[in-house]
Design goal:
The structure is a single chain. It is rod-shaped and about 90 Å long. By secondary structure, the protein is mostly helical. It is built from two helices and no strands.
């Protein structure tokens, strides 16, 4: 176990406290940045999902108008086979 003179101990603890407070501030800033990036990622993921749903719906509707199935076969000719 170490012993320090009172003045040296106070100085050491003060410097450690200052270092810890700087580290805490830096960590909080990093967390804020990450939260923002996570939110942006979630919004973009939702947009891509919604775009894909819309694209698939439009494709299915177009195929139905053309009288085709999802795999491109004509359902009328498939029944005749």
């Amino acid at each position: 176990m170490l012993e320090y003179p009172l003045d040296e101990a106070i100085s050491l603890l003060a410097s450690k406290l200052e270092s810890a407070e700087k580290s805490l501030t830096s960590s909080k800033e990093d967390l804020d940045f990450l939260r923002e990036q996570i939110t942006i990622m979630e919004v973009n993921t939702a947009r891509v999902h919604n775009w894909d749903v819309k694209r698939r719906r439009e494709r299915r509707e177009q195929l139905e108008r053309d009288g085709l199935t999802e795999d491109g076969d004509d359902p009328k000719s498939a029944k005749a086979s």
